[in-house]
Amino acid sequence: MVGRVGAAALAMVCAVPACAEPAATEHGESSDTGSADTGSADESGTDTGSSGAPAPNPYDGEPIDLVVDGQWHWVDIEGMRCADGEQSGVGVRAVEGSSKLALYFKGGGACFNQTTCAVTAPLMLTGTDAIAANPEGILEFGREDNPLEDYNLVYVPYCTGDIHSGTVPAAELDGVGDPWDFVGHDNVVAALERVVPTFPEPLQLAVIGTSAGGLGALANYPSIAAGWPDTPTVVLDDSGLIFRDEYLRPCLQQQMRDVWSLSGLLEPCAACTNDDGGGLAQLYVWLAETYPQTQFGLIGANRDEIIRVFFGFGNDDCAETFGLPDLGAERLTEALADLQTQVLAGNFATFIVDGETHTWTTTPLFYSAESGGVTMRDWVDAFLDGQPSDVLPAE
Question: Less CB within 10 Å around the terminal CB: N or C of the chain?
Fold first, then answer.
């Protein structure tokens, strides 16, 4: 796959805390979370356009020829490609009699400078290699306790390094040998062109992403919602976090905007872009207000070591660093608490684990991890069932 830069490995430490006392609370009703412009969406979050009538479905491609056997099948999709131009597509698992659909967005780092591109390049996978890379957690089928066991599932691989959100082909970065196609958002649109006609009327839609895939699920949600405007939907972001500007520095946010050309994708959210480059955390507010009938959820570890590395590039106002930086465990804990108290509200539920582990739902830890006396598996099952709650580590 994308072997244009030297590989650098990030060690991922898996720490599952032992928790004693329950700390789960019922999730509240929607509340006023800010003054972001919500555009022309009606109460259901459906874009009604200037006439007041529902906008037409924008996706009218050829439906995928399904093999309904509960197994993975790879489908090349015209218009989907990786950072090096390699053909990409989606994995599809169709289940006999299923009326529910899940979209899974794979994670795997982010490329926005020489160091991060070196870390990310070996993680860029497509085809059956991508599916084989994480066959566990909610992607381990054949077990009755898997909440997605009876879902049709579409697997969106990650091979562009731009949190599934770029729109820049043949981008050139200092210190990176070959150009990168940052076309993650273009890939999502190309996939939806085929996937929406294949599953036109699911009774429930679950959009799930890990790490960069979680961020991609959030950033691309308006495009996804346009395909299924009347479908009850939940969106679950595992470990793809955005913090307020005090913790995710505006200079780093601006660097990502510039490298991946995020301005078009974020344009509907006026508060998401400040003059100094900050404001990305307002995406949570905008999504909650624009799609009040959608239930959003976040899973995160309060000392996540991988998030600390990537956001550490904003240290000292994005001063050049040698090696891998670190935002700091204490700083990350503060950032996550600040996000919960100052930004998230209403239809955003959270499951926070005390530890350093990065990503949970596609690992064996999904079935064993606990926080506040609640297992992650049970929390996700209830979340998908329309019973969201906020869970924090027991004190």
Answer: C
Phi then psi for residue 374, to 5 deg, are: -115, 130
The DSSP H or E segment spanning 216 is helix 212-219
User: Residues with Cβ < 8 Å from 288, sequence gap 6 or more?
Assistant: 30, 33, 296, 344, 345, 346, 347, 348
Strand partners, 207: 103, 235
Enter the tokens of residue 336. Answer: 């996550």
Mean pLDDT taken over the chain: 88
Q: What does the DSSP assignment read for 15-81? A: ------S--EEEPPPP--------TTB-TTS-B-TTTSSPPPPS---PPP---BSSSEEEEEEEEEE
Strands (E), 191-260: 204-210, 233-238
314-358 residue pLDDT tens: 999 999 888 899 999 999 999 999 999 999 978 999 999 999 999
What torsion do the CA atoms of 239, 125, 161, 66 make, to the nearest 10 degrees? -80
Q: pLDDT class for 57, splitting at 50, 70, 90?
A: confident
Residue 22 maps to a domain? no
In a domain, 256, yes or no: yes
Q: What is the pLDDT of residue 171?
A: 95
Domain of 190? 30-363
Residue 190 has pLDDT above 70, yes or no: yes
pLDDT tens per residue across span 349-390: 999 999 999 999 999 999 999 999 999 999 999 999 999 999
**pLDDT for residue 345:** 79
Token representation of residue 247: 């913790």
What's the domain count of the chain? 1
Name the amino acid, one letter, at 136: E
The string of pLDDT tens digits covering residues 201-219 is 999 999 999 999 999 999 9
Q: Is there a domain that residue 289 lies in? A: yes
What's the CATH number where 267 sits? 3.40.50
Q: 3-state DSSP call for residue 346?
A: coil
Contacts of residue 100, defined as CB under 8 A and 6 or more positions apart, other chains included, come to: 150, 151, 152, 202, 203, 204, 205, 206
Closest CA to 300 of 378, 377, 356, 384: 356
DSSP 153: E
Give the per-residue pLDDT at 180: 95
| HSE-up (13 A, CA, CB side) for residue 166 | 28
